[in-house]
Amino acid sequence: MLSGRVPGAAQKVISRCSQRNPEADLTRPASSKIIDMNSHDGHSARPRPVRESQSQMAEVVLPNDANPLGNLLGGRLMHMIDIAGAMAAHRHSHSHVVTASMDHIDFLMPVHIGDLLILKSSVNRVFHTSMEVGVKCWVENYIAGTTRHVASAYLTFVAVDQHGRHHGVPQVLPESEEEKQRYEDAGRRRELRKQELERRKADRMIR
Question: What is the structure's pLDDT at 44?
Answer without folding.
Answer: 52
